[in-house]
Amino acid sequence: MPTVLRVGPYRFFFFSNEGDEPLHIHVRRDRALAKFWLEPVVLAESANFPAQELGMLRGLVVENHAKLVEAWHEYFSR
């Protein structure tokens, strides 16, 4: 589970066995979890995050998009 980014209580990561899926990132805070597609940035699924927080998280994904995509390609092209 490579962690790509940490922002406050949020950990942005992907699972190492998901390289065959389209580009995406998971975000965890405590027991809340969300998954965002990266091309384009769209919420794929979530559990235990309120809607307002999901909007803020989407903004963080957009803000860090280049870093997240680069980390995906770097990890899965090995």
Query: What is the percentage of strand-forming residues?
Result: 35-45%
Rg, nearest Å: 12 Å
**Segments where pLDDT lies below 50 for 5+ residues?**
none
Characterize the main sheet: 5 strands, antiparallel
Number of domains: 1
- Spatial sequence of strands, sheet with the most strands: 1-2-3-4-5
What is the succession of H and E elements? EEEEEHH
Shape: globular
Helix/sheet category: alpha+beta
Tally of separate helices: 2
How many β-strand stretches? 5
Q: Round the mean pLDDT to the nearest integer and report it.
A: 96
What is the percent of helical residues?
Answer: 25-40%
Termini separation comes to 15 Å
Describe the structure.
By secondary structure, the protein is an alpha+beta fold. The chain has one domain (3-76). The chain is 32% helix and 37% strand. The chain contains two helices and five strands. A five-stranded antiparallel β-sheet has the order 1-2-3-4-5, with helices on one face. Strand 3 (24-29) and strand 4 (32-38) form a beta hairpin. The protein starts with a strand and ends with a helix.
Give keywords:
78 residues; alpha+beta; five-stranded antiparallel β-sheet; 5 strands
List the helices and strands and how they pair.
Layout: E1 3-7, E2 10-13, E3 24-29, E4 32-38, E5 41-47, H1 51-63, H2 65-76
Antiparallel strand pairs: 1-2, 2-3, 3-4, 4-5
Brief account:
The chain has 78 residues and is of the alpha+beta class.
